[in-house]
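hi!! sorry for the late reply, been swamped w classes. u asked for the two structures so here they r. pasted raw, havent cleaned anything up. first the sequence of the first protein and right below it the tokens
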Amino acid sequence: MIRPTCNIKINDFEFDFLNELELVSAWKNLTDTGTLRIPRKIKLGGKTLVAGSNNLFKRGDKVEISLGYYPESARVFTGFVSAILPESPLVIQLEDAAYLFKQESLTVSYKETTLKQLLTDVCPIEFVSVEANLGGFRISNANFAQVLNELKKRTGSQVGCAIRSCIAGSLISLKRASRTSLSFKEV
């Protein structure tokens, strides 16, 4: 008999149960997102999941999710907790590495720059870029994700990020947008 399996790891806490999981991956959105619903009234070692200062889950915690059918499973999501909503069941919102790009504010101004130079100055991870002249470029109090969005608008290029690299430019292989929605619900 085929038996679905899940393994969810948030920081050092691992569990294999959930009420519902939805993952959305779309290249055009610059980020993969997810919504995880788990039972609210769970305690581990006297700690509650999200209440008070002695809780297990916090915004910014690293998340890894693997799904499959016993005995095989594959990692389908790696990212961070972006929000925790105190509903019943508990709702944990997830984002991939783009979450990190939204944490720091940037202000950059160039009279003349290239795409490669701009990314060298502001990109927090390794990147791959085509050579492109941007001319003047200015953005104030924006996070890196907003800089990528602005590049996308101004140049019409496909821009996206993965957990360890950033890709910018009009690369034909990157123009294909994929959208995947996985749902795992108790029936």
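now the second protein. again sequence first, tokens right under
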Amino acid sequence: MQSDVFRMQPDVSIIIPCYNSERTIADALDASLSQREVRVEVVVVDDCSTDGTLQIAKRHSSNRVRVIALDQNRGTACARNAGIDCATGQWLQFLDSDDLIAEDKCARQMADAGDADVVYSDWSVIDEASGREYPWPNTFKNAKRPLDQLIRSNPLPTPGAAIVRHVTVKRCGGFDSSIRYQEDWEFWVRLAAGGAVFKYVSGHLCTYRLYEGAKSYERLPTLRRSVETLQHIAGKPYAPPIQTALAQSLRRRQRDLAVLYCQAGDHQSAAAVIDAVQGGLSLLEAAEYRLAQAVVRSGLADRLGPRRLAKLARFHLQKLTG
């Protein structure tokens, strides 16, 4: 009897958090159920949608598809964690409701996993406005020191590109539900800092869809959210070398955010970002930041214009962050 139960255990649980995704949820489910050569269960977690998402998901409900409806909107991290709690697969595939995966994705990544905890591949982007599909540059191929790269940026911007061992996710505690944006970045950093082994498998096996209503990739709001997420990550009790690297990464992003604010003509926000960085700086660094403050706050700022002001601010802030 125990061997029968073991044979029926899914190889992979595909967890799909969704909120107002009636346009794309059926495609995400079809892609999940089309996985070849692996036993799959799908866990759909509806984050209190106000459109027809839940009804569409329930029409797919079966012995392979479980649908969970949250009683209030709690964010993507909470929805994923609810899916993790119900999942029974040995591997977890996190798939956003507007993403797609190739039918051989899970099988290929599992076959090449070896002793890895996280297996990831390349991904493509579909611009639904134009119908054009193009490969997204992957700067994380064969990363020899994944934590170093993850501290600097999130090279896996769509969690659908990877699969993760269930036991590894449980050991790290799942996603941080206090983060509403870019929660996957914090998740990858925590996994890598905890010693998880990352492995790259070639091939464009995941597709991210850009469509009207999707989360914005505009540079200023994206960078602002990145700074907020990195501040959250840096506030965790990591070892001193990791804390130092996180602080340096945060300063670089704050510098770039201040420059973007300058380019947008929002000198007050630029000065506020600079103010937030000054704690713990050396005297020389603090002096350089005060100079940058003077630039963005002075009447000279308006006469210089956004471009020249941004160039001048970047010159001074670059000295600090390298």
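hope this helps!! also noticed smth abt the second:
Residues 219-321 form one domain.
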